[in-house]
Amino acid sequence: MSLSKLDLKIPGSSSRSTFAGAMAKALRDGYGQHTSAIKTVARLTGSHERAVKNWFAAKNGPRGDHLVLLLKESDHVLAAVLALSGRKEVLGALQVTAGRELLRDMLRQLDELTSCRAQIPPA
Q: Pick from 16, 32, 78, 95: most CB atoms within 10 A?
């Protein structure tokens, strides 16, 4: 399979590893593969549905302004871009931060449950 001019080869990657392919995987992982996912991403980026279908099919990837909008909304796209750029340590730091936030939320919920139980008189 030959690559089109629209495919961006990432330095140090194999010829099958392309920007378009990485974006397609990230979009499918983050939004699913249904028509509604394409419509959602098109609305989010202000792109034509045909262009977004091409992103999902790895025919080409989003251009810069669309990519920035996707980075704001999708952790999957952010992770793919960080991995492609060789910045996996940043991805690790983001995952630790997300884990801490999740743990804080869980502890808050446990505290709420505990305070509710303390208010219920024993049977």
A: 78
Residue 86 backbone zone (phi > 0: left; psi -120 to 50: alpha; other: beta): left
Angle in degrees, 0-180, between the axes of helices 35-45 and 49-56, rounded to the nearest 10? 120
Token pair of 17, please?
Answer: 């590893």
Say what the pLDDT of residue 42 is.
Answer: 97
Judged by DSSP in three states, 18 sits in: strand
What tokens appear for 119 in the block?
A: 């208010």
Outline where the chain has alpha helix (H): 19-31, 35-45, 49-56, 64-73, 75-84, 88-119
Residue type present at position 74: S
